[in-house]
Amino acid sequence: MMSPISVIIVAAGKGRRLGYKIPKAFIKLAGQEMYRYSLETFSRIAEIGQLVLVVPRGWPERLSYLRSSFPKLGAVVAGGRERSDSVRAGLEAVSERSDLVLIHDAARPLVSARDIRAVIAAAKRSGAAVLAQPVTDTIKRGRRGFIAATVDRHDLWRAQTPQGFHRRILRRIYACRGTDVTDDSSLAERAGFRVALVPASSPNFKITDKHDLWMAACLLRKNRRA
Fold first, then answer.
1. Using one digit for the tens of pLDDT, what is the confidence trace for 200-218?
2. Residue 148: inside a domain, yes or no?
3. What span, in angstroms and rounded, lies between the C-alpha atoms of 94 and 98?
4. Do residues 93 and 131 touch, judged by C-beta distance below 8 A?
5. CATH number for position 29
6. Terminal CA-to-CA distance of the chain, rounded, Å?
7. Closest CA to 161 of 10, 5, 3, 46
8. Do 77 and 57 touch, CB atoms closer than 8 A?
9. pTM metric for this prediction
10. What is the span of the domain harbouring residue 169?
11. Which of 33, 85, 102, 175 sits in a 20 to 30 Å window from 223, CA-based?
């Protein structure tokens, strides 16, 4: 019987800022494609029964072979123009037997199993949860190249992924078209749902530039040697 947890791994971004001609999640990182790290980490968690990989149009057909390496991979689907379109496409492939759905960006290859389990536990309790990191830097608001104000960082958090939701909540917040947010918890907030914050216990930064690639590769190689 399938576990009541599915995971949508979003790997449909183009990653133009990295300067590569291939999609970001397909860039080699410490010896293998970036998206594979997420597939491997989520596959190891017993509670998770289904993975849905969302990739750019034209790529699902090329990746059908992945199911032999990742038995939990239930579907590889084409994403859309915006991130919300890609999540919506992934949601269509989620099993009706799944009570809980996690959404994770493949551009965060360092996510730990410990943090994933913490998000699962929080989402089960509250219906919606997001992995996040408290802001520790001093934050400035700028205007025309100068500091306009110092922002109180006391209650500021950096949202990460995975983000977990009861399936009925996720279907409700994605029922409308034209969503223009950069993460799923923002939609839940708009719909009036309370979203639990789950403090991240390990590095889980999003890869956006070549320095991030270098840092992630260093950490992944270090973890292999440990």
1. 999 999 999 999 999 999 9
2. no
3. 7
4. no
5. 3.90.550.10
6. 35
7. 10
8. no
9. 0.94
10. 5-131+158-225
11. 102
